Amino acid sequence: MARETVRRTISGWLMLPVLIGVGATLVVSIARTIGQGAPGTIVVLIAGVVLTGLLCAGFFIVNPNQAKALLLFGRYSGTVKTAGFHWANPLFAKRRLSLRVRNFESSKIKVNDHDGNPIEIAAVVVWRVVDTYEALFEVDDYTHYVQVQSEGALRNLATQYPYDAHVDGETSLRGDTLAIADQLKTEVQERLAQAGVAVLEARINHLAYAPEIAAAMLQRQQAGAIIAARQRIVEGAVGMVQMALEMLAQHDVVALDNERKAAMVSNLLVVLCGDRSTQPVVNTGTIYH
Are residues 107 and 204 in the same domain? Predict the structure, then answer.
């Protein structure tokens, strides 16, 4: 398979004075020959002037981070990547490509995640052309190809993972952004390799449940957050109760039987785990009445 070939050219600043000098010489020669009455020589000199003018069509400019592919009668002859003023065969057809870094932001795609929930997802892909031959001749329109293949890779990735992880250690779109970004970059690069494009970065920039299930999923997330918070509160409350009982026994503050310990534990748990502030009740009698 043909690959990109970097072509060397003649400096335009070198050829410019040469062609100007040749053209000026031919014009002066024509003016002198007209007075001598030599029509054959005049025709040759005029043809030389025309040829010199055609050679001037070989000048072209390559801007920084741009390239020009040269084609001769439909055949690829190489790519000029060096910025500057160049001269090459005037019969070359020149096709310009940008080698600059580009951003592509996909549209919001509606797709089902691994759990079957409809979600909206979009991504940003940072890319650049690294092989001008493949970009020009392996695909029809490499810019459009990047857009279509990037959205296809994003859609495929979204179906492989759930939006949220419901099991510890499970990879999810929302919880493992770095891992998902790396995999998205790899998958996009595999699809764009034949187009001569290098993917520098790919990441998700929009992720949300579809509107029809967003409210229900929000309640589910809130319930999960409440359960997790309650679990932490209960764990902390049990530790505080245990510490209180151990300190009471260690300092011999009061001796409690199992029934009174159970009552104390119940009261402390109510105080520590309750949603609302508790109202204390002062016992003016003994602890057994």
Answer: yes
